[in-house]
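Re: beginner question about structure tokens

> Can someone show what the tokenized structure looks like for a real chain? I only ever see the sequence side.

Sure, here's an example I had lying around. Input first:
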Amino acid sequence: MSAATLSRTSGFGGLFAPARVQATVIQIATVVMFLAACAFIENFASASNISSILYAASTVGIAAVGLASVTISGNLFALSLGSTAAFASIVYIAASGWGVLPALAASVALGLVFGLLQGLVVGWLRCNAIISTIAAGSLIAGLATWVSDGRTVLAEGGPSWLGSGTLIPGVPWQAVLFLLIVIVGEVLMQRTRAGWELRLRGTNPDAAELAGLRVTRMVVLSYVLAGAGAAIAGALIAAQSGTGNLRVGADLDFSAIAAMLVGGVAIGGGRGRIIDVASGTLFLAVLTNILLVNNFAYEVQLMVKGLAVLVAVTAGALLARKKR
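And the corresponding structure tokens:
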């Protein structure tokens, strides 16, 4: 590799290489937007408001981290996150009498099973990823309705420490969990054979299979991670509200997709980092909070989020074309 190539792909210059420029711009924009909001919006930097931002970012971000493994592997999206989160919230509340950690483990186990089944359908049976996950979402929602009889399940004693507790003022435990999951996900994707195979499968599925890579296993793994992420998100929402119902995670699919694409994960697969997903999540959380504290209507928030995704997808397509 020549010195010129090294300078483009490493160090400061590498931050603005075609494959990294979107993620870098989003990271800079997040910092600038946050500092500007702290300077010009009253009480924006208060512990309670920072905590609100981190609560919103944590649930969406954890789901987006799991979803990123599906997208990076070249299977676009899993569209059953919201249904999985709703069912997981019901399981979490139903099991909350055992304690926070056992209830969380029960929710995660549910997500792992649903993710495994979808991974087998898409990876082993080679079914269409979008259609399969839409069908799975419908099936999961039906099962959740049957189990809960369509009712809201209430926790004894209200929200737990996982839902309302803080490490320090302004930093909830949910944000700590989000950070740990981002670190583990980044190491898995960047430093392990599984992460390498996931990216290669997303870059060129046929070549990856001809090279003898564990293509089917990696597809299954990506859906297992997505299911687990959605289940954790649902459990965290339930822990915060003290309730579990079918409305939990109603917009989780789009929010997770938005955070992932805005952060710079390539919609076609093969490119993206978990730290980029976290950046995209924080960008949208800060932006949404700014709109919220300035009393913009929910419809406006949806339009701004949709516009951000549209710009991100367009930028990604243009950058991919420039790279070729």
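Each token stands for a local structural state, so reading them left to right follows the chain. The chain has one domain: 53-317.
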